């Protein structure tokens, strides 16, 4: 028969060495979470390995950067496509490359805020130059939005490039060549956006406008790129081809958020001073590696004759020439101060300004890599200010 002392020892032993039920449950949970954490880490490591080695492409853009995988063209210099710029859109961009024809479909032609009632119907990129018989030979014609810009019409947002850098269903680029003779060819890569969002200065957003044409230009000699131009607001910057950033052989252009000005580097850019690129100031553009756009995948091709200033369709000959010959503005006329959308100016600057002219007015027959203006043309050999 067990003594009381032995029973007490037995009970004490059970109490001291055997975990309580709640402690058992906690231990099991800890073990389960430990196993799950190790499994998760292992799975993430495998996914990362597969992604880095190209077996998974869900988070990586597979944009062609080599000549042997470039879009093939006929009746057009292939090297112009092979060396075409790739454009990094900013990570905060909200107004992406847009379909050029959609700009016509969502606007109506005005002169002095009055609609041209007998304009071609339907108005298309093919017959857009028919507007040149109105408003001072077309110069005073504005493609005016059918919807109030302050309601943020969806068509102004453009199209986000897909994983291959293509704006699906949207032709957002016009590639124009000007053969200058003796082996020299200037290739203009014109980028179209339905909306330009201006810079914010002291809490005032200034310089917004419907329609936005920006561009890079590459000067070729005997099929080889020599220099490259980056358009930026009223002017821009030029570099040697060797100096610019590249993906394989294709140069990189950084498009600023909202304004879409083109820069050779990512970061902050003050454009108060023409032909300068300072990282601080009052008029700041921002560029970064957000979404990579390949403008060649949905582009119209043109040949420009500098002698008679005429355009013809390049490639398969189907690009709408009327769009290039149109002399008017690709957006609304600047709203007066009496318009509730506009309001009072801020030190002489307005929130909304007039739409831009088209590619014909971008210095297609320039002498130097820079446009022919009063600003000195500097060909930089390093990226920077």
Automatic annotation (TrEMBL):
<protein>
    <recommendedName>
        <fullName>Vacuolar protein sorting-associated protein 62</fullName>
    </recommendedName>
</protein>
<keyword id="KW-0812">Transmembrane</keyword>
<dbReference type="InterPro" id="IPR009291">
    <property type="entry name" value="Vps62"/>
</dbReference>
<feature type="compositionally biased region" description="Basic and acidic residues">
    <location>
        <begin position="1"/>
        <end position="13"/>
    </location>
</feature>
<keyword id="KW-1133">Transmembrane helix</keyword>
<feature type="region of interest" description="Disordered">
    <location>
        <begin position="1"/>
        <end position="22"/>
    </location>
</feature>
<feature type="transmembrane region" description="Helical">
    <location>
        <begin position="32"/>
        <end position="51"/>
    </location>
</feature>
<keyword id="KW-0472">Membrane</keyword>
<dbReference type="Pfam" id="PF06101">
    <property type="entry name" value="Vps62"/>
</dbReference>
């Amino acid at each position: 028969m067990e003594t009381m002392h032995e029973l007490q020892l037995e009970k004490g032993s059970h109490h001291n060495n055997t975990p309580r039920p709640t402690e058992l449950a906690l231990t099991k949970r800890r073990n389960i979470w430990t196993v799950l954490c190790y499994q998760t880490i292992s799975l993430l490591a495998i996914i990362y390995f597969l992604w880095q080695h190209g077996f998974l492409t869900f988070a990586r853009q597979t944009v062609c950067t080599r000549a042997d995988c470039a879009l093939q063209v006929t009746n057009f210099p292939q090297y112009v496509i092979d060396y075409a710029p790739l454009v990094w859109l900013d990570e905060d961009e909200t107004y992406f490359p847009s379909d050029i024809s959609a700009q016509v479909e969502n606007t109506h032609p005005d002169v002095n805020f009055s609609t041209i009632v007998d304009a071609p119907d339907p108005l298309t990129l093919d017959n857009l130059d028919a507007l040149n018989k109105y408003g001072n030979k077309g110069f005073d014609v504005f493609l005016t939005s059918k919807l109030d810009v302050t309601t943020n019409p969806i068509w102004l947002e453009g199209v986000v490039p897909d994983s291959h850098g293509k704006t699906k269903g949207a032709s957002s680029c016009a590639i124009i060549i000007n053969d200058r003779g003796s082996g020299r060819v200037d290739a203009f890569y014109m980028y179209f956006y339905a909306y330009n969002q201006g810079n914010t200065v002291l809490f005032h957003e200034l310089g917004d406008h419907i329609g936005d044409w920006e561009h890079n230009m590459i000067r070729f000699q005997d099929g080889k790129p020599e220099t490259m131009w980056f358009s930026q607001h009223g002017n821009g910057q030029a570099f040697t081809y060797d100096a610019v950033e590249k993906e394989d052989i294709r140069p990189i252009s950084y498009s600023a958020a909202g304004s879409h000005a083109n820069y050779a580097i990512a970061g902050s850019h003050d454009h108060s001073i023409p032909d300068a690129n300072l990282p601080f100031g009052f008029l700041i553009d921002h560029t970064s590696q957000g979404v990579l756009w390949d403008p060649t995948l949905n582009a119209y091709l043109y040949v420009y004759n500098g002698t008679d200033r005429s355009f013809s369709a390049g490639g398969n000959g189907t690009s709408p020439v009327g769009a290039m010959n149109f002399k008017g503005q690709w957006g609304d006329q600047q709203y007066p101060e009496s318009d509730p959308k506009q309001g009072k100016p801020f030190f002489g600057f307005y929130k909304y300004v007039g739409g831009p002219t088209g590619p014909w007015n971008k210095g297609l027959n320039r002498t130097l890599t820079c446009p022919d203006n009063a600003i000195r043309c500097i060909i930089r050999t390093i990226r920077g200010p």
